[in-house]
Amino acid sequence: MAIQIVIPDDSPPVISGTAALERMRAAAEVIVYNSPPASQEDLIARLQGAHTAVNIRGYCKFTARVLEAASPTLRHLAIWGTGTDNVDLAAARRLGIVVSNTPNTATDAIAEHCLALLLAVARRLTHLDAAVRQERWERGMLFQCRGKTLGIIGTGAIGTAFAELGRAIGMRVIAWTLHPDPEKARRFGFVYAPTLDGLLAEAEVVSLHLRSSPDTRGLLGGAQFARMRRGAIFINTARGDIVNEAALAEALRSGALLGAGLDVFVREPINADSPLLGAPNVVLTPHTAGTTPEALANGLNLCAENVARYLAGAEVVHRVA
Q1: Same fold for the domain at 4-105+293-311 and the one at 107-284?
Q2: CA–CA separation, 124 vs 144, rounded Å?
């Protein structure tokens, strides 16, 4: 029986028509689905007979039930991207399914998007652009970043890359993370706040860069937004479920926060009744921070490398389970 690679979720298409896909096709039969699975049952059906599954989109949930149904043949789940919150890693380990990902391939692209969101919110660019187009000549005070304190929550690759950009525009950078690295702080020119509450109270811009995990889901809620400085800006390009969206929307409506720039949400696509849609001075983008040609190529090529390595009996580059 031929080895089969299944890509159950290339929608919108990312890997279709790329050199990475052709590399996989040179190694095995590849089946690509260009529409989202309609249900868990549909995902299970798509994975039947697959030796390797390549996960492109986070909306595909590889629950214990899905992995158990696929486990008679599934040996490798290759994720394009860093996040593994859509995979039951404990179930994968129990079933002997190797899980690999592609971290740090979109670091520069996401850090730049953080900066773009910050400047768009600070200078009210979307609001002012709309006003000028409607022939309203609105002028008023804007937020200057230079000289302000940028608080980074999570000092992985993206958090430290954004810290560099913050310093480049004249911001002082402080940070908090679950696992502080004093040598990294020295190398990148920031200092760790002793507590998350301390960072929230001191920073005028707070940018979130943690992974979604049982330790971080719901980490920022009403109490945390209340501790932030009045008139602060909040940026999130990490994961939506780390933030209580209703509490964030209320902080924006009340004027406690000046604004927010968000690329990720609890539900994606965002629900039509999300309180964030009606919140003032919030800039929203559709989980697209890492979608530059350079970042896409980096991640897809590394994903294909992981697939090729596993099929050849070698170690994958980045194994998470």
Answers
A1: yes
A2: 11
The CATH T-level fold of domain 107-284 is Rossmann fold (3.40.50)
Q: Which of 57, 76, 113, 239 is catalytic?
A: 239
CATH topology of domain 4-105+293-311: Rossmann fold (3.40.50)
Residue 121, judged by CB atoms within 10 A of its CB (0-12, 13-18, 19+), counts as buried
287 included as an active-site residue: yes
Please compute, for residue 75, the number of CA atoms within 13 A of its CA located in the half-sphere on the CB side.
Answer: 13
**One-letter identity of residue 174:** I
Token readout for 211 is 């992974």
- The residue extents of the domains of the chain are 4-105+293-311, 107-284
Catalytic member of 22, 268, 294, 315:
268
Q: What is the pTM of this model?
A: 0.88
Q: What is the pLDDT along the chain (321 residues), one digit of tens a residue?
A: 689 999 999 998 999 999 999 999 999 999 999 999 999 999 999 999 999 999 999 899 999 999 999 999 999 999 999 889 999 999 999 999 999 999 999 999 999 999 999 999 999 999 999 999 999 999 999 999 999 999 999 999 999 999 999 999 999 999 999 999 999 999 999 999 999 999 999 999 999 999 999 999 999 999 999 999 999 999 999 999 999 999 999 999 999 999 999 999 999 989 999 999 999 999 999 999 999 999 999 999 999 999 999 999 999 999 999
Active-site residue, selected from the candidate residues 46, 57, 76, 287 = 287
Residue 11 phi/psi, 5-degree rounding, is -145, 115
